[in-house]
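Recall that a protein's primary structure is simply its ordered list of amino acids. Everything else, from secondary elements to tertiary packing, is in principle encoded there. The following example makes that idea concrete.
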Amino acid sequence: MQQTSDEVLIQRIAGGDRLAMQVLYARHHVRVYRFVLRLVRNESMAEDLISEVFLDVWRQAGRFEGRSAVTTWLLAIARFKALSALRGRKEAELADEVAEGIEDTSDDPETAMQKKDTGEILRKCMTKLSADHREIIDLVYYHEKSVEEVAQIVGIPENTVKTRMFYARKKLAEELKTAGIERGWP
């Protein structure tokens, strides 16, 4: 069962195969969770949304048409769920999250050590991108999705994906340079 393709697993899930569902979940839940977590920035909410995503997969497996990869379909469902959840939040909750996200600009010893970590610097620079640009960078570089797949997941034209990727990379390069790191791409 571990060697079975995602598409075959979806067909089996559509037929009510619980083992196929377990295999698909084991194969993809971490990737989908990380994607959702980057969008909602709340571990508890991300865990709840992952449950909803895979419940939808169980219910809608028969509707999967195979026009995209299963991972693209999963991420599209996850994105829809995450954006719906964010829209449904109350303004007070958002205000609390924004307040928690305000960084203390003074450097303590721990922060000084973190600044040396390129990954940490990159994550901080990513937060300075707009949500649209962060999403494109996340899907292309962290989830290794093609421009075509990103366009399907986000629901925008491929040229818009390319444009957002161009400006996101440009802004990220500026932020990294400000942080003392030269960008690693041409």
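The chain has two domains: 1-91, 109-178. The chain has a mean pLDDT of 84.
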